[in-house]
Amino acid sequence: MKQIEGGITAAKGFQAAGVEAAVKYQNRKDMALIYSEVSCAAAGTFTTNVVKAAPVIWDKKIVEESPFAQAVVVNSGIANACTGKQGMDCCQAEAKCAGEALGIPAHSVLVASTGVIGMQIPLDRITKGIEKLAAAKAEGLEAGLDAAKAIMTTDTVPKQIAVEVELGGRTVTIGGMCKGSGMIHPNMCTMLGFLTTDAAISKEMLRKALRADVADSFNMISVDGDTSTNDTLLILANGLAGNVEITAEGEDFERFCEALHFVTVYLARKMAGDGEGATALFETKVMGAASKEDARTLAKSVICSSLTKAAIFGHDANWGRILCALGYSGAQFDPENVDLYFQSESGKIHIYGNGTACDYSEEEATKILSGPEVTVLVDMHMGEAEATAWGCDLSYDYVKINADYRS
Amino acid sequence: MKQIEGGITAAKGFQAAGVEAAVKYQNRKDMALIYSEVSCAAAGTFTTNVVKAAPVIWDKKIVEESPFAQAVVVNSGIANACTGKQGMDCCQAEAKCAGEALGIPAHSVLVASTGVIGMQIPLDRITKGIEKLAAAKAEGLEAGLDAAKAIMTTDTVPKQIAVEVELGGRTVTIGGMCKGSGMIHPNMCTMLGFLTTDAAISKEMLRKALRADVADSFNMISVDGDTSTNDTLLILANGLAGNVEITAEGEDFERFCEALHFVTVYLARKMAGDGEGATALFETKVMGAASKEDARTLAKSVICSSLTKAAIFGHDANWGRILCALGYSGAQFDPENVDLYFQSESGKIHIYGNGTACDYSEEEATKILSGPEVTVLVDMHMGEAEATAWGCDLSYDYVKINADYRS
After folding, report:
1. Nearest neighbour of B335 by CB, restricted to A50, A310, A313
2. pLDDT tops 70 at residue B382
3. Which pLDDT band, with edges at 50, 70 and 90, does B337 fall under?
4. Using an 8 Å Cβ cutoff, are A176 and A52 in contact?
5. Where are the beta strands (DSSP E) in B224-380?
6. How distant is the Cα of B273 from the closest Cα of chain A, in angstroms?
7. How far apart are CA B252 and CA B254, in angstroms?
8. Looking at the predicted structure, is the pLDDT value of residue A291 above 80?
9. What is residue B226's predicted lDDT score, i.e. its pLDDT?
10. Which of B127, B153, B173, B190 is catalytic?
11. Is B190 tagged catalytic?
C-alpha cells in the first residue's frame, strides 16, 4: 500500500467538480459533485441523532434499498435539517435534477448538506448549481480538490487523501475527502465524508468494511461533543480496477480494509486537528485496558474534556484533568495503577504513576505540549486492549466562531 | 417557608470562620470552618468519579460509619486529589488537628478540598490554618460570609442562602453555601456544598432527604461536562430547633424536603450562573416528556452542548443546535412533534414547531437572549414528566481561565 496524490478522483472512472452556487455563502465554491462513469456499489454510515437531516434520510434509503449509486451532490452553507416536508422535497428535486443533467436515474443520486440548521435550501440556486456541476465535472487532481474545497464550512483547509493497494495483481485505488469542523462528535462523528474506490467489491462486503472501520476511525474523534444531524460517510466502489470481485472475507478483503483504514484514520485526524479554533491535534492512546470498549470509552473521555482541551491550548501540563476525565468515563479502574505520559515531536515524559505525580520537568512538559500534535499515552495495566481517539484543543477562536456562526 | 439573610450560620448553634492560610493562594481567605456547638446527624453525597480525592474518601467513611459529626474544615487552592497515601495522611492530620483545637473527636471532623489536582497540601500551613479557624470561629452573618468567601476558587461571588420553615410549631432553619465553578457536571455536580440545619432529624431521614434532593438540584447543573474528583455535598443537622425529631416520612419530612429543595436549587442556579467565564445563566425546562429520566436527560443534553452555550454567549437564536442536542441525548422522540420557546425577563417567543422554524422576529429573539437568565422551554408532547437543568454560556473567559488555571 502506498499513499498517492489526490482524493476522490484518484480512483479510475471517478470525476468531480466544485462550483459557486451561492446557496448561502457568496463568492466561494459551495457545491460539489462526485460522479462515477459506471454505476457503483454504495455503502454509508449516518448520524445516530434522533433529529436527522433530510439528506440523511434520503441517503439511508438509497444505500439500503437501491441496487447501485452513481453520483453524490453536496452543498455547504445550509444543512437542510429541521426543514420538514419541504426539506425532503428538496432532496428529491436535487436528485431528479442531477439525474437529468448526468443522464442517470434519480434514485442513483446521493445528496448531502452541511451548514446552518433550520433554514430551507433555495431550490432555484441548487438546481442551477447542479447544472454548473454537470457541465464542469472532470477527471484529475484539480477537479477533486475543487470538490474538497466546496464542501468546507468552518474548515480552514481541504482534506483529502488517496492510496493504492495491490489486490490479486491489480492496482486498486481508494480516495476520500471530508469536512468538519464543528458539531464533531463520535457516533457518527459530525462530518461529511466521501470515499471512492475502483475496487470490485460486493455491496455487502463494502458495507461490512465501512461499518467495521468507523468504530476506530471517524467515531473516535470529537471536536465539541455535539453529534450533528447531518453526519454522513459514503463510499462508492465502481469496480473499474478489474480485480477479482471481493465477495467474502479473505486476504483481498483484509488488504482492502487495511487501505480503507489508512484513508479513514488520515481523514479523521485531519478533521480533528482542524476542529473549530484548534491550534493542535490532541490525541489520546489508551493501552492495557480491560476491553476494547473500555479503551475506546477512556480515550474518548479524555479528548472530550473541555478542561483538558483548554489546558492543551494553554500548553499547561494540568494532568489532573486527564485523570479526572478517565475517572468519569464510566470505565472501572484503579487510579493507583495508571501511568500517564505526554508525547509530541519534542519528546516523551512520564507524568503520573503509582497514584501520584512523577518528578518531571514543567519546562520539558510545556515544550512537549507546544507541539502541533500532542499525544497523551495512558497505560491502564489491566489487559491488552488499545484504542486511540483524536480531538483538538479548546481555544478563544472556538468560542468566537460559534458565538456568531449564523451571521 | 421564607428566605432569610445569611448562610451556614443562620441555623441555631452553628459557627463558622474563614481565614488566610496561604495553602496555595496568597493574600486571600483560603480556609473555612463550619462548627456546630453540639454533635450533628450528617449525610453526604459525593462524586461518582472513579478517581476520588482523599477528602471524599475520608468523608464517605465518616458519614457512613461514624454516629455523628460536628465540624467541617475546607481549603481552596489544592484539591488533595491523586495524592496517594500522603493525601490520606493529610486528611487524618487535619481531622486530628481540628479535633484537638475544637475539643471534639477527630472522627467527627469532615474535610473538603478544592483546587489543583495532583499537588500535595503543605501540612504545616493547613494545621496553622486550622488553629486560626478555631480561634476565629463565631456565630452570625459575617462569619458565615467569611467561610463562603474562603471556599471560592474561580467563583466570582460567594454563594449562600438560608430559609426558615415551621415544623410542628417550631421554627427550623436551613442554610447553605457552595462553590463552583469549573469541573461542574452532574453526578455529583462538581462542587463543594455545605448545608446546616437546626432541625431534629434522624441520620437515616437526613440521608434520604439529601439523596432524593440532588437528582433535581445539584445533579441538574453543568458548566463544562467535567465531573470532578472532589464533588462533595454535606449536610449537618444539630436538632437545636427543638422540633419533634423527624424519623419517618410524613408532613414534617415533606416540609423539610421542600425547604431543603428551595435551598439546593437556589445554590445550584447560583453555581451554574457563576460558571467559569459565564455571562448568563442558561436554563432548560423540558415539559411533556415520556418519563422523568427522559426529561432530565433531554434538559441536561441542551445545557451541556458547547455549540448551544456558545450561541447563548453570542445572543444568537441558533435553535437548530438545541434540537440537535435533544436529538443526540439518547432519549427517543419525534422531532416533528416538539415545540421550542426562548424566554427571559424580556419576554417569550415560539421558535420551532411542526417540524420547522416558526415565524419569529430575530430582533426579539436577540433581545430575549441578551438577558442575564435565558430559558429554553421544550415541550415534547409525549407525557407529563418535567425536569429543569441549569448551565451557563461558553465565553472567551472560560478558555482564558482554563488555559492557564494552574499558574
Report:
1. A50
2. yes
3. very high
4. no
5. 232-237, 281-289, 339-344, 347-353, 356-357, 373-379
6. 18
7. 5
8. yes
9. 66
10. B190
11. yes
